[in-house]
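Risk register update: the risk of archive-format incompatibility is retired. Evidence:
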Amino acid sequence: MIGNISSIETMGLVDGPGIRVVVFMKGCNLRCKFCHNPETWCTKEKEVWSSNELIKYVLKYKDYFKNNGGITFSGGEPLFQPDFLLECLKLCKENDIHTCIETSGVGEDYEQILDYTDLVIFDIKDINEVSYQEMTGKDIKFSLKFLNSCQKKNKKIWIRQIIIPTINDSLEYILLLKEYIKKINNIEKIELIPYHTMGISKYKEYNIPYLLEGIPDMDKEELKKLEKLLLN
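Archived output:
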Protein backbone atom coordinates (compact mmCIF):
# COMPACT_ATOMS: atom_id res chain seq x y z
CA MET A 1 0.00 0.00 0.00
CA ILE A 2 1.36 3.42 -0.95
CA GLY A 3 0.39 6.89 0.24
CA ASN A 4 1.11 10.51 -0.55
CA ILE A 5 2.99 12.38 2.16
CA SER A 6 3.74 16.09 2.28
CA SER A 7 6.44 16.02 4.98
CA ILE A 8 7.57 14.25 8.16
CA GLU A 9 8.62 15.82 11.44
CA THR A 10 10.79 13.46 13.46
CA MET A 11 10.91 15.09 16.89
CA GLY A 12 7.44 16.58 17.29
CA LEU A 13 6.54 17.84 20.76
CA VAL A 14 3.06 19.37 20.36
CA ASP A 15 0.98 16.96 18.25
CA GLY A 16 0.24 14.40 20.92
CA PRO A 17 1.96 13.25 24.11
CA GLY A 18 5.72 12.77 24.37
CA ILE A 19 8.17 12.86 21.49
CA ARG A 20 6.51 11.92 18.22
CA VAL A 21 7.05 11.37 14.53
CA VAL A 22 4.43 13.55 12.83
CA VAL A 23 3.40 12.50 9.32
CA PHE A 24 1.75 15.29 7.32
CA MET A 25 -0.35 13.54 4.71
CA LYS A 26 -1.54 14.92 1.39
CA GLY A 27 -5.15 15.57 0.49
CA CYS A 28 -8.06 17.24 2.26
CA ASN A 29 -11.83 17.42 1.73
CA LEU A 30 -12.06 20.86 3.34
CA ARG A 31 -10.93 24.26 2.11
CA CYS A 32 -10.67 26.14 5.39
CA LYS A 33 -10.17 29.87 4.90
CA PHE A 34 -7.57 29.93 7.70
CA CYS A 35 -5.53 26.92 6.51
CA HIS A 36 -1.78 27.57 6.54
CA ASN A 37 -0.88 24.40 4.63
CA PRO A 38 -2.59 24.72 1.22
CA GLU A 39 0.22 22.66 -0.29
CA THR A 40 -1.35 19.60 1.37
CA TRP A 41 -4.78 20.00 -0.22
CA CYS A 42 -4.21 17.87 -3.30
CA THR A 43 -1.94 15.00 -4.29
CA LYS A 44 -0.66 16.24 -7.65
CA GLU A 45 2.75 17.13 -6.25
CA LYS A 46 3.44 14.03 -4.25
CA GLU A 47 6.05 12.16 -2.30
CA VAL A 48 5.06 8.50 -2.39
CA TRP A 49 5.83 6.17 0.50
CA SER A 50 4.80 2.58 1.06
CA SER A 51 3.38 1.71 4.46
CA ASN A 52 6.33 -0.59 5.12
CA GLU A 53 8.84 2.13 4.20
CA LEU A 54 7.14 4.56 6.53
CA ILE A 55 7.07 2.22 9.53
CA LYS A 56 10.68 1.21 8.92
CA TYR A 57 11.56 4.92 9.00
CA VAL A 58 9.52 5.54 12.16
CA LEU A 59 11.12 2.62 13.99
CA LYS A 60 14.48 4.40 13.81
CA TYR A 61 13.07 6.90 16.31
CA LYS A 62 11.23 4.47 18.60
CA ASP A 63 13.85 4.76 21.35
CA TYR A 64 12.85 8.42 21.73
CA PHE A 65 9.21 7.58 22.33
CA LYS A 66 9.78 6.17 25.84
CA ASN A 67 6.43 5.52 27.55
CA ASN A 68 4.09 8.03 25.92
CA GLY A 69 5.56 9.11 22.57
CA GLY A 70 4.64 7.65 19.21
CA ILE A 71 3.36 8.62 15.78
CA THR A 72 0.79 11.24 14.77
CA PHE A 73 -0.84 11.30 11.36
CA SER A 74 -1.81 14.85 10.41
CA GLY A 75 -2.26 16.72 7.17
CA GLY A 76 -3.90 17.81 5.12
CA GLU A 77 -6.42 15.33 6.38
CA PRO A 78 -5.27 11.77 7.17
CA LEU A 79 -8.79 10.41 6.56
CA PHE A 80 -8.40 11.47 2.91
CA GLN A 81 -6.23 8.34 2.45
CA PRO A 82 -8.10 5.82 4.62
CA ASP A 83 -6.65 2.58 3.23
CA PHE A 84 -3.05 3.74 3.53
CA LEU A 85 -3.71 5.20 6.98
CA LEU A 86 -5.30 1.98 8.22
CA GLU A 87 -2.42 -0.16 7.02
CA CYS A 88 0.11 2.17 8.68
CA LEU A 89 -1.84 2.14 11.95
CA LYS A 90 -1.95 -1.65 11.94
CA LEU A 91 1.82 -1.83 11.42
CA CYS A 92 2.30 0.65 14.25
CA LYS A 93 0.32 -1.51 16.66
CA GLU A 94 2.26 -4.59 15.55
CA ASN A 95 5.39 -2.69 16.63
CA ASP A 96 3.89 -1.41 19.89
CA ILE A 97 3.82 2.26 18.80
CA HIS A 98 1.29 4.70 20.28
CA THR A 99 -0.92 6.09 17.51
CA CYS A 100 -2.67 9.41 17.09
CA ILE A 101 -4.56 11.09 14.25
CA GLU A 102 -5.15 14.83 13.99
CA THR A 103 -8.34 15.28 12.01
CA SER A 104 -11.40 17.36 11.26
CA GLY A 105 -13.33 14.09 11.07
CA VAL A 106 -14.36 14.70 7.47
CA GLY A 107 -13.70 11.46 5.64
CA GLU A 108 -14.99 7.94 5.08
CA ASP A 109 -14.16 4.39 6.16
CA TYR A 110 -12.83 5.47 9.55
CA GLU A 111 -14.55 2.96 11.86
CA GLN A 112 -11.70 0.45 11.63
CA ILE A 113 -9.16 3.29 11.63
CA LEU A 114 -10.43 4.32 15.05
CA ASP A 115 -9.93 0.77 16.33
CA TYR A 116 -6.19 1.19 15.77
CA THR A 117 -6.02 4.79 17.01
CA ASP A 118 -5.05 5.49 20.63
CA LEU A 119 -5.70 9.23 20.58
CA VAL A 120 -7.73 11.58 18.39
CA ILE A 121 -6.78 15.25 18.11
CA PHE A 122 -10.10 16.67 16.95
CA ASP A 123 -9.94 19.98 15.10
CA ILE A 124 -13.09 22.01 15.69
CA LYS A 125 -13.45 24.33 12.73
CA ASP A 126 -16.64 25.97 13.99
CA ILE A 127 -19.59 24.96 16.15
CA ASN A 128 -22.32 26.62 14.13
CA GLU A 129 -23.76 24.86 11.07
CA VAL A 130 -23.92 27.96 8.89
CA SER A 131 -20.51 29.42 9.75
CA TYR A 132 -18.88 25.96 9.54
CA GLN A 133 -20.09 25.65 5.94
CA GLU A 134 -18.91 29.17 5.18
CA MET A 135 -15.48 28.61 6.73
CA THR A 136 -14.73 25.12 5.36
CA GLY A 137 -16.95 24.56 2.32
CA LYS A 138 -18.50 21.43 3.88
CA ASP A 139 -21.52 20.50 5.97
CA ILE A 140 -20.80 20.15 9.70
CA LYS A 141 -22.70 16.84 9.79
CA PHE A 142 -19.65 14.87 8.58
CA SER A 143 -17.53 16.17 11.43
CA LEU A 144 -20.25 15.46 14.00
CA LYS A 145 -20.75 11.94 12.67
CA PHE A 146 -17.06 11.22 13.17
CA LEU A 147 -17.13 12.67 16.67
CA ASN A 148 -20.09 10.44 17.48
CA SER A 149 -18.08 7.40 16.36
CA CYS A 150 -15.22 8.46 18.64
CA GLN A 151 -17.66 8.65 21.55
CA LYS A 152 -19.12 5.20 20.82
CA LYS A 153 -15.61 3.71 20.69
CA ASN A 154 -14.60 5.54 23.87
CA LYS A 155 -11.61 7.21 22.20
CA LYS A 156 -9.34 9.57 24.11
CA ILE A 157 -9.61 13.07 22.63
CA TRP A 158 -7.66 16.31 22.49
CA ILE A 159 -9.71 19.29 21.32
CA ARG A 160 -8.21 22.05 19.17
CA GLN A 161 -9.82 25.26 17.94
CA ILE A 162 -8.10 27.97 15.93
CA ILE A 163 -9.06 31.43 17.19
CA ILE A 164 -9.29 34.14 14.52
CA PRO A 165 -9.59 37.88 15.22
CA THR A 166 -13.02 39.33 14.33
CA ILE A 167 -14.38 35.86 13.51
CA ASN A 168 -14.45 33.71 16.66
CA ASP A 169 -12.42 35.62 19.25
CA SER A 170 -15.48 36.91 21.10
CA LEU A 171 -16.52 36.02 24.64
CA GLU A 172 -19.85 34.88 23.22
CA TYR A 173 -18.22 32.31 20.94
CA ILE A 174 -15.94 31.00 23.68
CA LEU A 175 -18.88 30.48 26.04
CA LEU A 176 -20.76 28.61 23.30
CA LEU A 177 -17.64 26.53 22.65
CA LYS A 178 -17.44 25.76 26.36
CA GLU A 179 -20.98 24.37 26.34
CA TYR A 180 -20.27 22.44 23.12
CA ILE A 181 -17.20 20.78 24.65
CA LYS A 182 -19.05 19.79 27.83
CA LYS A 183 -21.04 17.28 25.75
CA ILE A 184 -17.89 15.43 24.62
CA ASN A 185 -16.57 12.56 26.73
CA ASN A 186 -12.95 11.45 27.30
CA ILE A 187 -11.37 14.85 26.64
CA GLU A 188 -7.79 14.86 27.93
CA LYS A 189 -6.73 18.29 26.69
CA ILE A 190 -8.24 21.45 25.20
CA GLU A 191 -6.15 23.89 23.15
CA LEU A 192 -6.93 27.24 21.59
CA ILE A 193 -4.57 27.79 18.66
CA PRO A 194 -3.73 31.38 17.60
CA TYR A 195 -4.45 32.23 13.98
CA HIS A 196 -1.36 33.44 12.12
CA THR A 197 -0.58 34.76 8.66
CA MET A 198 2.67 32.90 8.02
CA GLY A 199 1.04 30.76 5.34
CA ILE A 200 -0.02 33.62 3.06
CA SER A 201 3.14 33.31 0.95
CA LYS A 202 2.14 29.74 0.09
CA TYR A 203 -1.17 30.98 -1.36
CA LYS A 204 0.76 33.36 -3.59
CA GLU A 205 3.11 30.55 -4.62
CA TYR A 206 0.21 28.28 -5.58
CA ASN A 207 -1.86 31.14 -7.07
CA ILE A 208 -4.73 30.55 -4.64
CA PRO A 209 -6.83 33.52 -3.42
CA TYR A 210 -6.37 34.14 0.30
CA LEU A 211 -9.84 34.79 1.70
CA LEU A 212 -8.83 36.21 5.09
CA GLU A 213 -6.67 38.98 3.66
CA GLY A 214 -6.29 41.83 6.15
CA ILE A 215 -7.02 39.85 9.31
CA PRO A 216 -4.04 40.15 11.70
CA ASP A 217 -2.38 37.43 13.76
CA MET A 218 -4.23 36.53 16.93
CA ASP A 219 -2.81 38.36 19.95
CA LYS A 220 -1.40 35.68 22.25
CA GLU A 221 -2.18 37.57 25.44
CA GLU A 222 -5.81 37.92 24.40
CA LEU A 223 -5.80 34.22 23.55
CA LYS A 224 -4.66 33.38 27.09
CA LYS A 225 -7.63 35.32 28.48
CA LEU A 226 -10.04 33.41 26.26
CA GLU A 227 -8.40 30.11 27.17
CA LYS A 228 -8.77 30.92 30.87
CA LEU A 229 -12.46 31.62 30.33
CA LEU A 230 -12.88 28.38 28.42
CA LEU A 231 -11.09 26.15 30.91
CA ASN A 232 -12.30 27.62 34.20
